[in-house]
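Title: Comparing notes on inverse folding

I've been comparing how different people in this forum approach sequence design from structure. To keep things fair, I'm posting one structure and asking everyone to reply with a full sequence. Here's the target:
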């Protein structure tokens, strides 16, 4: 009789050789997936939307995360509130995933009716002694950073969201991102595990061969390179890169802009993130094919176009903010082999399509990049499930952040007893 050598989730994680990829079972097993959702999407802070998702009082955005669902609501005082998408009667969903506009939140099952502040306002057939005051909608812990809506579904939300907030608010402030609107949004279901989606986003080893639109605006040295055995031409290019970076940073800092890189990615951190102001190639203005702004109406009261790319990573999102538009993506795991990627393109709230910007010019870089990444994640996932797969070594020059992510992932599982 054969004996199956079944390793637990924790044992699989610990079996990873340092400097190498994760075992394939960490990407493909259903029990691993369910634990990942519980730990990384229920107990950590995650990005679930932007303030422009609910621009007016009465606007609602319902977002599903695993078995959970939340409501993002703009109340009558224009404040953003978040609630569990669960009626306090018998648990019916108040709203299907997506956006809508309401006067009040009415349960479709028995018509229990809630104000936008979450209070239960109306019921029938509950008797004169029924106390509505203890049946308000359940609030969700929320932080708004710039335009980013972060939530934590745990009763014990990690306190170090304060560090992310304190770091990013002054970086986003010049752009006045709360006064923006969504010019375009898109969803892609990538056929791969959520960790592979994040790994793909954390390295640009693959970019030169697969992302011609994206690399038009990138300085490739920003994403790692092997410094060994450089030709004279490559050394001149590297020297030019350092000179351009130094000149751009000096110019930005003279205008009072924050440029230093902040990395909180090590295993001891709970709320991991990274931010950097990246120099844009070519004309240096925006992530477009010609590297010029796509939108003449700049964010806030900005006058200067060449402000680089304020880049932010978290464990479920990535953000690029330029002077004229922002691209914000976040992921929701759906299954071991399926991950939803939502992307939103933001512009100044007064920008007019056709007058201030052309939508194709604004979106074509990341529309193409997202489709290319979806294909890469799919082939990567299928390969990790092949019996022949054995985790290979990371590049020490271009895949540094994959090793850091792998270490952080293992540490967070361990902290939750996995």
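Reply #1:
Here's my take.
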């Amino acid at each position: 009789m054969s004996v199956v050598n079944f390793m637990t989730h924790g044992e699989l994680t610990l079996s990873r050789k340092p400097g190498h990829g994760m075992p394939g079972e960490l990407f493909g097993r259903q029990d691993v997936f369910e634990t990942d959702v519980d730990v990384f999407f229920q107990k950590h802070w995650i990005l679930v939307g932007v303030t422009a998702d609910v621009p007016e009082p009465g606007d609602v955005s319902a977002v599903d995360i695993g078995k959970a669902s939340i409501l993002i609501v703009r109340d009558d005082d224009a404040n953003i509130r978040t609630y569990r998408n669960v009626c306090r009667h018998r648990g019916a969903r108040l709203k299907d995933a997506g956006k809508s506009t309401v006067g009040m939140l009415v349960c479709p099952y028995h018509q229990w009716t809630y104000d936008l502040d979450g209070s239960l306002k109306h019921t029938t057939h509950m008797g004169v002694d029924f106390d509505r005051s203890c049946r308000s909608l359940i609030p969700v812990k929320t932080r708004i950073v710039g335009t980013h809506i972060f939530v934590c579904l745990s009763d014990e939300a990690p306190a170090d969201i304060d560090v992310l907030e304190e770091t990013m608010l002054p970086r986003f402030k010049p752009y006045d991102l709360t006064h923006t609107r969504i010019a375009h949004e898109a969803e892609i279901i990538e056929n791969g595990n959520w960790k592979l989606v994040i790994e793909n986003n954390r390295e640009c080893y693959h970019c030169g061969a697969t992302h011609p639109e994206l690399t038009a605006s990138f300085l490739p040295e920003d994403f790692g390179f092997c410094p060994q055995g450089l030709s004279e031409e490559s050394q001149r290019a590297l020297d030019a890169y350092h000179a351009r970076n130094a000149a751009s940073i000096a110019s930005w800092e003279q205008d009072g802009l924050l440029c230093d890189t902040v990395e909180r990615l090590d295993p001891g951190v709970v709320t991991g993130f990274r931010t950097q102001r990246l120099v844009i190639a070519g004309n240096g203005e925006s992530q477009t094919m010609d590297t010029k702004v796509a939108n003449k109406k700049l964010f806030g009261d900005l006058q200067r176009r060449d402000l680089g790319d304020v880049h932010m990573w978290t464990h479920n999102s990535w953000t690029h903010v330029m002077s004229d538009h922002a691209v914000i993506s976040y992921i929701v795991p759906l299954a071991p082999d399926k991950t939803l990627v939502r992307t939103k393109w933001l512009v100044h709230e007064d920008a007019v399509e056709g007058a201030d910007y052309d939508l194709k010019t604004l979106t074509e870089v990341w529309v193409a990049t997202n489709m290319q990444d979806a294909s890469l994640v799919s082939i990567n996932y299928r390969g990790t499930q092949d019996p022949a797969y054995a985790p290979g070594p990371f590049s020490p020059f271009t895949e540094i952040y994959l090793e850091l992510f792998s270490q952080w992932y293992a540490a967070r599982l361990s902290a939750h007893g996995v």
